[in-house]
Design a protein that fits this description.
This protein has helices at residues 18-28, 46-55, 70-80, 99-103, 130-138, 158-163, 176-187, 216-231, 237-263, 272-283, 288-293, 303-313, 317-331; strands at residues 5-11, 33-40, 60-65, 85-88, 94-95, 110-116, 125-128, 154-157, 190-197, 199-200. The protein contains 13 helices and ten strands. The mean pLDDT is 90. Strands 3-2-1-4-8-6-9-7 form an eight-stranded mixed β-sheet, sandwiched between helices. Strands 5-10 form a two-stranded antiparallel ribbon. α8 (216-231) packs antiparallel against α9. α2 (46-55) links the parallel β2 (33-40) and β3 (60-65). 38% of the residues are buried.
């Protein structure tokens, strides 16, 4: 019998949407659960809204802390969670299905459960081994139609996280979800994917992937270092080749992110020549240099990223800058 589920919601200045997110859990879930809201130093009315909600519901706990970022807030939630399972919900997203009902009856040998989000499969349940899970996590979009690199719409057995000391890397503001799930894939015994929608992801322009990030390059350097550190170990040749292909795609994606979030962002007031030099210097550093100079499998990257790689191979840094500046102005 399922003991209890802990829902961890990190929030920063979420006065416009935090109540909707909490209400969606209360409306959809039946059974024993706790909601841990980690207010990460909000400066708007988030704290008072959360406090007033918690007054009337003993299942809700509020933790107020100084602003330390989403990874730190989620780690605070993990530390304080009392449930058998932990589910992460972003404060601007909604829950739309009963996760407790779905988790009830999951075998004790299973440490990780992923739920469906959009694509409906013919099967109700799929069990995958560690290697399959690792490849799914490393794939931006995958064969089974589930977004496995994000922590939303997933359930993690708390004992597995604690015994393996799995936590979010607090130096990262982008890629921390994927790194966390890589750690889970390397340590969990068995994983299950349930074809059941329990989550509604709502993309917003205020998310970390849309904002100007002055330290985007530093973030991507840390991210690629941490990925390589975990996946540089011995795997069988076939799996290693697949992992390397995925890592190459992620490194290309890192270049794309730095160009979009930093070098060519409309809020970055650098001159054209300065942007060009920053990109050139980046591509001359590892691991970016090796990925651009060697012939890699580009099946898993989109056409726009392929165009970027082709231009970088020809050292047409100015053309890449121009491409991103046009793109950013159109999407503004």
């Amino acid at each position: 019998v399922l003991d209890m589920v802990s829902v961890v919601i990190p929030v920063y200045n979420g006065e416009k949407f935090i109540k909707k997110s909490i209400d969606s859990i209360i409306e959809n879930w039946n059974g024993t659960y706790e909601i841990i809201i980690v207010d990460d130093g909000s400066t708007d009315e988030t704290a008072s809204i959360c406090d007033s909600i918690a007054k009337n519901d003993t299942r809700i706990r509020i933790i107020h802390q100084k602003n330390a970022g989403v990874s730190n807030a989620r780690n605070t939630g993990i530390y304080n969670a009392k449930g058998e399972w932990i589910i992460f919900v972003d404060a601007d997203d909604l829950v739309q299905g009963d996760a407790i009902n779905a988790l009830d009856g999951i075998e004790s040998s299973i440490d990780f459960v992923a739920f469906g989000t959009k694509k409906i499969q013919e099967w109700d349940r799929k069990q995958i081994n560690k290697d399959e899970l690792l490849l799914e996590v490393l794939g931006e979009s995958n064969a089974i139609g589930f977004k496995m690199n994000a922590v939303w719409a997933k359930a993690y057995r708390k004992e597995m996280l604690d015994s393996n000391k799995i936590r979010f890397n607090e130096k990262l503001f982008h890629g921390e979800d994927l790194l966390f799930n890589v750690d889970v894939a390397l340590k969990c015994k068995t994983a299950v994917i349930l074809n059941k929608e329990i989550y509604k992801y709502i993309p917003t322009d205020t998310s970390a992937t849309h904002k100007f990030q002055s330290n985007s390059l530093e973030n991507e350097k840390i991210f690629t270092y941490e990925i390589d550190k975990r996946l540089g170990e011995d795997f069988n040749i076939d799996l290693k080749q697949k992992i390397n292909n995925r890592i190459n795609c992620m490194i290309i994606n890192s270049i794309w992110i730095v160009c979009g979030q930093n070098i060519c962002h409309t809020e970055n007031k650098l001159k054209f020549g300065e942007r060009k030099n920053i990109l050139k210097n980046m591509i001359q550093m590892e691991p970016y240099k090796s990925v651009i100079t060697k012939n890699i499998n580009m099946e898993n990257i989109n056409s726009k990223q392929r165009m970027m790689v082709s231009l970088l191979k020809e050292k047409k840094y100015g053309s890449v800058i121009f491409m991103f500046m046009i793109r950013n102005r159109i999407s503004k």
